[in-house]
Design brief:
This protein has one helix and two strands. The protein has 53 residues and is an alpha+beta fold. It has one domain. The radius of gyration is 14 Å and the shape is flat.
Amino acid sequence: MIRCEITITTDAGRKTGYYLLVSTLLDPAIPATDLVRLYHNWWLIEIDHSQCI
């Protein structure tokens, strides 16, 4: 389980929240920050793809 703090900035201001990622990947050679970044990118693709259907 990976817990991280994420801050986003928009025209309305900044917002900070916590992100919790549960994964079965147990390889210590894969940094948690990489997993969070990849998961975020995957969701961006999923959201964009759902707009096309």
